[in-house]
């Protein structure tokens, strides 16, 4: 009984041992199916998935690194989102390498076609592990069956194509936004094997192809180029964790320029118009505070709304962008026209005439800004900011001047101008509305003697109203001219520098 048991045990052991060493023969492989052939080729007795394909130098038999050739075909590239500093691509990535263990030319000479398969076939093979060094996330495309194509040629060349979708970081420099150009790279790097084991190459012929139908809404594609480098990971930067060494890396870079049409039509032109509208204020009279303030503040608010809508799409970088220079410039112009109004309005409400030596900007401004000039040493001192007291009207040179010399009032045709003055006793409102001719003719006033003071030849007396209108007239030219100069500098910087 026990001998029988022993015999059965021996038999079992023998069969187990036989199965263990049973390496399926590769002879007469011609009549095998694809599945049978690949099962035999990758059988555990002759193929180890964890072991990379090895070839040796002929001279001294040293292990050579395996060369992996990469090709990329870009189907799709989504708008770079400046806000997130990232972009999306859909790309077909093809890896090609030679695995001598999978050569079946000799064992199955009649099979000329490559063995084709999908993910299942790939999972039985060794794969060079390559990762996207600058990815935010990535995944294989395809719904149920992920889109992987594996092919093994008779000579052992393995080609693995996979369609991947990736979101990649692109550290953009937005200094010249929206006239910027960006270079965004896709970086592939070997994960496990350093350069003594695996070297990545771009395919010699057309390593990168962009789909001809590829269209970016906000950018124009200027070109793409590829680069092969070696990444050095040492124990200081720990780029590959504890594994120091040199790792093969590939990259391709796309050069993009932003299409400015949208920004010109939606930002630059409207803001130019808004700035121009703020100049309408200079054609309104200096004491028309409600319309002039309305115009100034509403253009300011409109412009800030326009600009903030623009700024929301951008990351909050600390450096100054070109669009911000434009924003600051336009804000200053609108602000300037408001300040001009405040200045002109203050002068309009003054009561004291100003004597100027010559009718030029320098003298007028100088005399206006320092009303207590040498010639006025005896007059009351009146602060620039303090409005004149109404009780002092009889001493006001302007009123004195009008009353003493009986200047015809029809030279003042603006009603508001007169409203201030009509409080003084010498005017009747009926005479005020008569004239519509030139206001404040300087010639009328120039040679007339003024009260107790005598004029030197060449001195001109200007009423505050005249001065404010003079300033307004100057502003009508100076503001547009300054804006033109600003534009000249701005657009030169944008397109030339
Ligand atoms: C393969 O199959 C063909 C017929 O399909 C046959 O003639 C041939 O002898 C077979 N070869 C081997 C090696 O079995
Ligand atoms: C390739 O990369 C290296 C290192 O990053 C760089 O010096 C070289 O300019 C790049 N070549 C091209 C064509 O971009
Ligand atoms: C690759 O790694 C091996 C062991 O991990 C190391 O001996 C070798 O120096 C490395 N080679 C390079 C080029 O980093
Ligand atoms: C990596 O490459 C650098 C030069 O490119 C070399 O100095 C260094 O020795 C290499 N490291 C290894 C481990 O081979």
TrEMBL record:
<keyword id="KW-0732">Signal</keyword>
<comment type="similarity">
    <text>Belongs to the ligand-gated ion channel (TC 1.A.9) family.</text>
</comment>
<feature type="transmembrane region" description="Helical">
    <location>
        <begin position="267"/>
        <end position="286"/>
    </location>
</feature>
<feature type="domain" description="Neurotransmitter-gated ion-channel transmembrane">
    <location>
        <begin position="269"/>
        <end position="491"/>
    </location>
</feature>
<keyword id="KW-0812">Transmembrane</keyword>
<dbReference type="InterPro" id="IPR036734">
    <property type="entry name" value="Neur_chan_lig-bd_sf"/>
</dbReference>
<protein>
    <submittedName>
        <fullName>PH-sensitive chloride channel 2</fullName>
    </submittedName>
</protein>
<dbReference type="Pfam" id="PF02932">
    <property type="entry name" value="Neur_chan_memb"/>
</dbReference>
<dbReference type="InterPro" id="IPR006202">
    <property type="entry name" value="Neur_chan_lig-bd"/>
</dbReference>
<feature type="transmembrane region" description="Helical">
    <location>
        <begin position="293"/>
        <end position="313"/>
    </location>
</feature>
<keyword id="KW-0813">Transport</keyword>
<dbReference type="InterPro" id="IPR006201">
    <property type="entry name" value="Neur_channel"/>
</dbReference>
<keyword id="KW-0472">Membrane</keyword>
<feature type="transmembrane region" description="Helical">
    <location>
        <begin position="477"/>
        <end position="496"/>
    </location>
</feature>
<dbReference type="InterPro" id="IPR006028">
    <property type="entry name" value="GABAA/Glycine_rcpt"/>
</dbReference>
<dbReference type="InterPro" id="IPR006029">
    <property type="entry name" value="Neurotrans-gated_channel_TM"/>
</dbReference>
<dbReference type="InterPro" id="IPR036719">
    <property type="entry name" value="Neuro-gated_channel_TM_sf"/>
</dbReference>
<feature type="transmembrane region" description="Helical">
    <location>
        <begin position="325"/>
        <end position="348"/>
    </location>
</feature>
<keyword id="KW-1133">Transmembrane helix</keyword>
<feature type="domain" description="Neurotransmitter-gated ion-channel ligand-binding">
    <location>
        <begin position="34"/>
        <end position="259"/>
    </location>
</feature>
<dbReference type="InterPro" id="IPR038050">
    <property type="entry name" value="Neuro_actylchol_rec"/>
</dbReference>
<feature type="region of interest" description="Disordered">
    <location>
        <begin position="368"/>
        <end position="391"/>
    </location>
</feature>
<keyword id="KW-0407">Ion channel</keyword>
<dbReference type="InterPro" id="IPR018000">
    <property type="entry name" value="Neurotransmitter_ion_chnl_CS"/>
</dbReference>
<feature type="signal peptide">
    <location>
        <begin position="1"/>
        <end position="18"/>
    </location>
</feature>
<dbReference type="Pfam" id="PF02931">
    <property type="entry name" value="Neur_chan_LBD"/>
</dbReference>
<keyword id="KW-1003">Cell membrane</keyword>
<keyword id="KW-0406">Ion transport</keyword>
């Amino acid at each position: 009984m026990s001998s029988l048991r022993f015999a059965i045990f021996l038999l079992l052991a023998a069969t187990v041992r036989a199965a263990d060493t049973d390496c399926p023969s590769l002879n007469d492989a011609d009549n095998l199916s694809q599945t049978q052939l690949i099962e035999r080729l990758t059988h555990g007795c002759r193929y180890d998935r964890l072991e990379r394909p090895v070839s040796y130098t002929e001279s001294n038999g040293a292990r050579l690194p395996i060369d992996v050739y990469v090709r990329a075909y870009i189907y799709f590239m989504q708008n770079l989102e400046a806000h997130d500093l990232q972009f999306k691509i859909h790309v077909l990535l093809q890896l090609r390498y030679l695995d001598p263990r999978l050569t079946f030319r000799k064992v199955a000479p009649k099979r000329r076609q490559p063995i084709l398969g999908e993910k299942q076939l790939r999972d039985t093979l060794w794969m060079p592990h390559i990762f996207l060094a600058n990815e935010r996330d990535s995944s294989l495309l395809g719904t149920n069956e992920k889109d992987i194509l594996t092919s093994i040629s008779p000579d052992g060349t393995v080609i693995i194509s996979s369609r991947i979708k990736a979101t990649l970081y692109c550290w953009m420099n937005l200094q010249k936004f929206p006239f910027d150009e960006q270079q965004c790279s896709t970086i592939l790097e070997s994960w496990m094997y350093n350069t003594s084991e695996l070297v990545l190459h771009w395919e010699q012929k057309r390593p990168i192809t962009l789909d001809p139908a590829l269209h970016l809404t906000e950018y124009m594609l200027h070109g793409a180029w590829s680069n092969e480098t070696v990444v050095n990971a040492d124990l200081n930067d720990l780029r590959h964790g504890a594994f120091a060494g040199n790792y093969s890396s590939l990259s391709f870079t796309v050069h993009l320029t932003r299409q400015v049409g949208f920004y010109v039509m939606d930002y630059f032109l409207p803001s130019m118009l808004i700035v121009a509208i703020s100049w309408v204020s200079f054609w309104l009279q200096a004491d028309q505070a409600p319309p002039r303030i309305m115009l100034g503040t509403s253009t300011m608010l409109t412009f800030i709304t326009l600009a903030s809508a623009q700024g929301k799409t951008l990351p909050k970088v600390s450096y100054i962008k070109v669009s911000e220079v434009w924003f600051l410039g336009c804000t200053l112009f609108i602000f300037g026209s408001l300040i001009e109004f405040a200045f002109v309005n203050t002068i309009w409400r003054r009561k004291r005439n100003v004597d100027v030596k010559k009718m030029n900007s320098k003298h007028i401004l100088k005399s206006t800004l320092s009303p207590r000039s040498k010639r006025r040493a005896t007059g009351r001192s009146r602060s620039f900011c303090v409005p004149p007291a109404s009780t002092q009207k009889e001493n006001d040179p302007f009123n004195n001047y009008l009353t003493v010399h009986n200047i015809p009032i029809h030279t003042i045709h603006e009603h508001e101008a007169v409203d201030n003055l009509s409080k003084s006793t010498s005017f009747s409102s009926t005479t005020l509305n008569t004239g519509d001719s030139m206001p404040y003719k300087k010639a009328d006033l120039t040679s007339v003697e003024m009260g107790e003071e005598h004029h030197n030849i060449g001195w001109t007396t200007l009423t505050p109203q005249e001065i404010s209108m003079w300033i307004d007239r100057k502003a009508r030219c100076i503001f547009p001219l300054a804006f033109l100069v600003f534009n000249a500098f701005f657009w030169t910087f944008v397109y030339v520098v």
